[in-house]
Amino acid sequence: xxxxxxxxxxxxxxxxxxxxxxxxxxxxxxxxxxxxxxxxxxxxxxxxxxxxxxxxxxxxxxxxxxxxxxxxxxxxxxxxxxxxxxxxxxxxxxxxxxxxxxxxxxxxxxxxxxxxxxxxxxxxxxxxxxxxxxxxxxxxxxxxxxxxxxxxxxxxxxxxxxxxxxxxxxxxxxxxxxxxxxxxxxxxxxxxxxxxxxxxxxxxxxxxxxxxxxxxxxxxxxxxxxxxxxxxxxxxxxxxxxxxxxxxxxxxxxxxxxxxxxxxxxxxxxxxxxxxxxxxxx
Amino acid sequence: xxxxxxxxxxxxxxxxxxxxxxxxxxxxxxxxxxxxxxxxxxxxxxxxxxxxxxxxxxxxxxxxxxxxxxxxxxxxxxxxxxxxxxxxxxxxxxxxxxxxxxxxxxxxxxxxxxxxxxxxxxxxxxxxxxxxxxxxxxxxxxxxxxxxxxxxxxxxxxxxxxxxxxxxxxxxxxxxxxxxxxxxxxxxxxxxxxxxxxxxxxxxxxxxxxxxxxxxxxxxxxxxxxxxxxxxxxxxxxxxxxxxxxxxxxxxxxxxxxxxxxxxxxxxxxxxxxxxxxxxxxxxxxxxxxxxxxxxxxxxxxxxxxxxxxxxxxxxxxxxxxxxxxxxxxxxxxxxxxxxxxxxxxxxxxxxxxxxxxxxxxxxxxxxxxxxx
Lengths: 282, 373
Fold this sequence. Notes:
The complex is a heterodimer. Chain A has 13 helices and 2 strands; from the N terminus they run H-H-H-H-H-H-H-H-H-H-H-E-E-H-H. Chain A is mostly helical. By secondary structure, chain B is an alpha+beta fold. Chain B has 10 helices and 20 strands.
């Protein structure tokens, strides 16, 4: 008996060591480029293109450059505005759609849900040309509206799917109790269901925000002068004279901040959301 | 206060080309202030019936009247009902006070009155000390009381209850059974109560409607259902341990009628014989409740010989299992019995204790006879 438990203990130790090793390798591989970018952003000009130097006296000259010489305030503002608008609009449109798909039984419901999901699977570049033509006709190129619409469309499939799972987790009886207690269908949705899926709204809203914040392709093609997104702005340090690495890495570092903050604050919610409702009733 | 009338109520569920008839043309009249229990095995359509009355399911066919008013097209909130769900369905984000006050707040009652009535109800249900807690901080029994509180605070026309006691432990269930019955009588509100537990049904109901496969098998007071089951389903469903059944043929020998099974031949009285002749059935199922089986150690005329198989002492009484051919027959006897396993005995079936059903229609012959007249 004791011998057996010893072997199984030994196996467990080996297994968890293996898991930690793989996890650590992955984290290292993912974090190394980011660490390199952050470190580089604090390097003084002479050593900025020498990646092997990890020890030096940090300087803020690159940040001074992006805030004073060639300010990124405008891209920072534009990106925030578009990401926040996208996030709110995605939730405003996606949550009622998700509610209908979760709660109302109609012909072809599951097919419709799957059809929506296929948009998530399709390559974004497939939509670039038709959308470009449409925005051009509507004179919406290089406007906030064009990007908010595009990002919202791109977000909706996963917003709908994730919110549907959160709504499915709310016991149907709670809504039915509210119907009997005196609410209309709309009131039940607004005053009972929404408060109960608040964690889901936050998690999905943040995912939508981050998607919009880091989106590059649509931003590059649909905007240029009036609207400047951070992701596109960063590439502007790639000039004829070469890559201006210091300010570029500083700009990237700044653009990483909101994603990191959100990820930390809502770590639990995001993990919960990504399990797609696999853990029920929690 | 109001009566509830169901006319030809039908619900058919259709999914992926499959048609399931959940409720099949039921007719039922629930009197004002009555405690009616819908009883049946799972999937018999009792919950669907309740949900149609609540307005949570749309009937495929038929009408629902509450207080004489057709409510088919009324939204649940406009039917003036309240409902207690099996899992209580409390609002998890609200305190106990707000849960109970919810139906009043929606209807914009003045704040003072809401407070007064919540406190009244909390007093009645003995949950006053819990008013500031959240539902997840309560035990099952406490949650159940809060759900009840939310249902009774508004004094609706009808209470609907969907197995409200099934999530409680056995001891609490027995306690709540009596309390709920008392509460219903005090409030005097028409109540429709769904359960699969026949003990709950028998102890609480004014009348019970037994359902099976979407149909109402029998409606009656608990003693009526127990003493005069009108078909085999009701006879077998009500009573514990369940009724013993035997298939018999009606045989006439020298002008005397016998009920003949594979293992015994039972001589019937002339009254029963004339009844059997009048109904004109040849194949019957006879039923006798374990409490009605008399056990004798001496041979008795018209008794059935059997061998003791298992003895199950329960304390207040003892269940004896006998082997009768391929069948097992149960008898309930006083705990003082000294009959041992393997012993040969004679089982006496008193004729007035027998329930006789037509094998083909499954209906009681007494019912068939009364219908004929």
